[in-house]
Design brief:
ABC transporter involved in vitamin B12 uptake, BtuC; 268 residues
Length: 268
């Protein structure tokens, strides 16, 4: 018997894998105020599930294609006919509703809807772990490769352009990374909670970090700790695992906020 034979070990490894990619990427989502953009992309995952089931394709492939298509569509259409927040709101809820309706219309296919909405981390297999870590490492490598350029484009687009960095290209790279993260995270926390795992650890890391790089590393650590605490709490209290992980991340955010407040008070 090996450690991977335990479903709890597989679940913990899956959550840590997602945290590895969500930490750095979540920092950019927080810095660029892209939370609603992340929602729209994550909600499109249900359309991808329907597409994959209807065409008998791998779920990860269907989700990646659909999430990327949604992200690119919103990026290109925002600010033209409607305000950005309006476009994101329409896209987010339209994708979620359409995905739910489309899933109900699939005949002869039995679907555990709650697993796609809230995740089913306890059912992660070895094959799922391979997909999660391949996707997470790809996202992490992509963000690390473009770190300086992404940071410049985030801080000041005019300065970035003057330095030879094309802000639109960096936005597209973030869009691609976000779509990949949604695809590998769907089974862990579900379409409704993916954005929470992007935003909450990154926001919690702000209270402890002094540099952007430190914030990214701390966000990964908080995501990993939240996974372990959420799994432990779910096992002890018999609560849903995906939401329990998010609650643990929120508690880390509260702790980070208190830490920041105490440190600011000491300086006065």
């Amino acid at each position: 018997m090996t450690p991977l034979d335990s479903f709890l070990v597989r679940a913990a490894l899956a959550g840590i894998g997602v945290a590895l990619a969500a930490g750095p990427l979540g920092c950019f989502v927080v810095w660029r105020r892209m939370a609603y953009f992340g929602d729209a992309t994550a909600h499109a995952a249900l359309l991808g599930v329907t597409l994959a089931l209807a065409l008998r394709l791998p779920i990860v492939l269907g989700v990646t294609v659909t999430a990327l298509a949604m992200a690119l569509t919103v990026s290109l259409a925002s600010g033209r006919a409607y305000a950005v927040d309006t476009m994101l709101g329409v896209a987010s809820h339209a994708a979620l509703a359409t995905g739910l309706v489309a899933l109900s219309l699939l005949h002869g296919v039995r679907v555990d809807l709650s697993a796609y909405l809230f995740g089913d981390i306890l059912a992660v297999t070895r094959a799922d772990l391979a997909v999660i870590y391949c996707g997470a490492l790809l996202v992490t490598a992509l963000v690390a490769w473009r770190w300086r350029r992404l940071l410049l484009a985030t801080l000041n687009e005019d300065f970035a352009a003057a330095s030879g960095v094309e802000p639109r290209t960096e936005r597209l790279i973030l869009t691609l990374a976000l779509a990949l993260l949604v695809a590998v995270s769907l089974k862990v926390v579900g379409a409704l909670l993916i954005t929470a795992m992007l935003i909450v650890p990154a926001a919690a890391a702000r209270g402890f970090a002094r540099t952007p790089e430190a914030m990214a590393v701390i966000a990964v650590a908080i995501g990993a700790v939240s996974t372990l605490l959420g799994l432990g709490g779910s096992w002890t209290l018999d609560t849903p695992t995906g939401p329990s992980i998010v609650v643990a991340a929120v508690l880390c955010l509260v702790a980070g906020t208190l830490f920041s407040s105490l440190r600011a008070a000491e300086r006065r």
